[in-house]
Amino acid sequence: MLLACCMGMRGQDSFRFGTNTNPDGVKFEVGSRGFIVGGRHMLPVMGEIHYARVPEKEWKREIQKMKAGGITIVATYVFWIHHEEEEGRWDWSGNRNLRKFLEICREEQMPVVLRIGPFCHGEVYQGGFPVWLTDKASADPKQYKLRSQAPGFMEATRNLYSNIFAQVKGLLWKDGGPIVGVQIENECRGPWSYYMALKDLAVEAGFDTPFYTRTGWPKLNGNEEFGKLLPLYGDYADGFWDRDLKDMPGDYPKAFIMKDTRLSAVIATEALGKNQDTEMSTHDLAYPYLTCELGGGMMTSYHRRINMSGREVKPLAICKLGSGSNLPGYYMYHGGTNPIGKLSSFQESKITGYPNDYTVLNYDFQAPLSQYGEARAKYGLLNILHLFIEDFGERLAPMECVQAEKFVAADNFKDLRYAMRTDGTSGFVFVNSYQRLYETSDITDVELVVGGKDSGISAEVAFPKFDVKAGSAFFLPFNMDMDGVCLECATVQPICHDDNTWYFMAIDGIAPMYRFAGQDEIVATPGLEAGFDYKGLNIVTLTLAEAMYMRRLSDKIYMGHGKNLYEDENGQIRAIEEGIDAKLSMEACNKPFEPSFIEELKLNGKDNLSWKKLSVDSPEGFVEINEKYDCGQIYADGKLVADNFYMGLPWRIPARLLYRKECYLVTSEYVNEVYF
């Protein structure tokens, strides 16, 4: 298999947005290959967390966990309805305290992309538009038509932006603060004049940032003015919004192939329709390839209950990196819990006119960090990739994307899906054999050669034969400089290095072999204690189980040995809380009160609800509910504290929510829904 050259457009060298120099003189620039910070190529990792969906007292700890997992930029929505539910009455307190959240990000040296709307979506009622605004739009569409340049709507948005900026003033990059970018609108077809009117309002309010973004889907109606907004792309392995009740309908399988298009035909199909145009224009390809919504998990809706295994997001990210992306951006990286408003709950539902029904509180999204801060397996799997990006991102970012001579289609499970990133001498080959809910095939005796005619590589490098196990996703180095030692090729995945120790990971089904310049070949034994010395370098080949719990904290490597480690504000290394420590007791009882959100319990049209009294013996850890139900809600001292749609998995709840409170579980009758 020979990798032939299929270079993407380089585009212009740089884009000029707002002020990009901080008080220390560090420039945050945008170029055709992504971000350049302090004159050096940066390949950041962006993770979405919504401050209003996470308790204020937990913000610092959760940002620390995100840092430990390799996140280097935080993205967050500012939901209008969360802050101005009633016209003129702004709420920036408690979990809505945007300024405090940003100050914590500054303390943790975590840059932020602020997504300021006015429309945000994020499964919030009306995409974040307050009821008073939609009432005005209904009564006077000429003045208040939503998502238009109608005078009343523009003035309301100007007021929104001004109030947001009042909270963030002094926290922009140019002030020494964390805000490096601002997203304008979301999931909007335009017209372009509407986008420009919003950007003008944001700049007028004071948002002077290194870059301004928009979501890169769908294709815009009307002519785009190149270089004014940076499109960020996305892809999901499956979608709660889809109307088809079958496994991965439509174009979802295309998320798992190397491809020359950045646009996805599957995002927001409930609002944008199924026939989204994915053809790339010259202008599309001239922008850097950056993402803001790689599916870190997936929300579940009432009609479509998607059960993510946790294996999806790493291959998804590898396919994007192999296809030329220089920003993995995950939605969501940290789940959350919806606040409840004064006038209504804030989730979307058919009652509120939306096509899908959601839980009132639960916005867990099956993310790497759960709504309660638990670390799922994907947290560790992704961190292996993020450690590599931290150490090798400066090398990888300017590398050209070189695709195979012929793209492998999403329904082709026999041929190798692979691509290469190279600087003309060295590089990495990206391979994926995983596709959610599909049985892919083992590929044996792979003969991989990089270089040769039209390859962009100065000299051929032939890897030793290897087998690709079905369901695997990995990347291999060639001509990699290791402190003056050239690793010609290897059948292991590079992770990171620390002083003279270089860490790699063994790939399931492939013998770990290193070939150095001069044809020195070493077959390694996987394991932390089985490293070998080569010309003064200590080379360690970790197992997957070891690599998943490896962390770099304060520039030191720690091996977690089965525990997910993070560093707190005092410099102490701690393990993320996990496990089931408290004992849960359940006892059937008569209905003690009318549930606050009874309509959400009766989505299947049945009135018979089951009640159980709950008690726990400790505030520590988590408890599990394993019985079957359709919709479930838990009330503590009369207040809704947790809810869920059953989808075949245990329901985990922090014991602290129930301890020493009068608690009840209320469920509707189990129906045999389809779980994906």
Index terms:
single chain; disordered N terminus; 26% strand; 17% helix; 676 residues; alpha+beta; 7-stranded antiparallel sheet
Word description of this protein:
The two termini are 35 Å apart. The strands form 11 sheets. Strands 5-6-7-8-9-10-11-12 form an 8-stranded parallel beta barrel. A 7-stranded antiparallel beta sheet has the order 15-16-17-22-23-26-27, with helices on one face. Strands 34-35-40-37-38 form a 5-stranded antiparallel beta sheet, with no helix packed on it. It is 17% helix and 26% strand. Strand 28 and strand 29 form a beta hairpin. It is globular. The model is unreliable at 2-10 (pLDDT under 50). By secondary structure, the chain is α+β, with helices and mostly antiparallel strands. The longest helix is centred in the middle third of the chain and has 20 residues, at 377-396. It contains 13 helices and 40 strands. Helix 6 packs across helix 7.
Percentage of residues in helical conformation: 10-25%
Strand order of the largest sheet: 5-6-7-8-9-10-11-12
Question: What is the overall pLDDT average?
Answer: 93
E-strand count: 40
The assigned structural class equals alpha+beta
